[in-house]
Amino acid sequence: MKVFCLGAAGRISRESALDLVQYSDFEKITIGDYNVEEAQKVAQWLNDDRVDVVKIDVTKVDEAAEMMKGYDVVMDGTQITLNGLSTECIAKAGCHGVNLNGFGEENKWDGLFKEAGKACVPGFGMTPGTTQMMAMHLANQLDTVEEVYVSHGAFRPFAFSKSITETTTYEYDPNLESRVVFEDGKFIQVPPFARPRKIDLPQPYGETTQYIIPHSETVTLAQALKDKGVRLIEVRGTWPQQNMTLVRGLYDYGILKNPVVKVGDTEKGLMSIIGDYLVESQEGKTTKLYGYALHVEVVGYKDGVKKQGILYHTHPASDGSVEGWEGLRAYTRNVGIPLAIAAEQLAKGQVKGTGILIPEDAFEPEQIFKELERRGIYMHESWNSL
Asked: Saccharopine dehydrogenase-like C-terminal domain spans which residues (predicted)?
């Protein structure tokens, strides 16, 4: 088997490549990135004979697709704004594909994947991805489902990379149409900081106030659970408190609208300027607490009794007590590992169906959990009668 690791020079998907080196059966692991110098550094870090490096530019679609041909799967770690192009390349190459974001730009290539007999799963990291597995694990134990609450705490710096800064800006764009909740059969658009809810995350994170975010779980779970009668789906998230304070201030002052300002002889979006500063600043690149915390709650009925299921996850600490999970890597490994697991399952033919697939239709939750446990990432489940 061969895997093409697109964008694996990045801070997150290099962790996916490491996971493939450590756990997968791939015989060839190619790192394809526009930044070939950084990709070479990653290859040296991985230190495995199966790893090689190529320079690729997904804006040159036909050329990029030709480079991907012959690989069993493309593991796409590119940023949100490139996912439409990167998915086009994968579809035209005739490979299976999976990426981290899943914001919908991939859907237009469904027909090409079906023609090739291949599957593409947009959005499979921690969230979206693992969160859908958690929700389905709970929902599958109920006869009917009424409410689903997906929450996460992503404890990482505001701007440890340009793509992460882009994600932050995207999710709190005041005009973003995809920031929705699912309620009584309809998707309802909400503004940033809508519907605050206190979520009790495991230590060392504790209680956090979380707000609605524009993640794909809202849409995919509505599709997956329609036969169970689901009437409410809300997806929330938070970052470290200093990040949330900054984003709130940027929102309140209208800066997240990215108004164009003139600096000297150059015109540029104000939020873009702030993002450029944060990427280079100590404040933008560090935070006090690192890691990830997923929390999913499903409410429904089993044998006529109303039940509440809660599932949350834990991972090795970021304090240096577990090698390889120090500091920021406690965050980046959490995101990168599920992507690698999904890529191998696709390559091995363990995903049924072709075309663009939602995670709920592509993977078995318990199989994903089993693989996560091998890496020291655990699920914790509890049930209450209401």
From this structure: 125-377
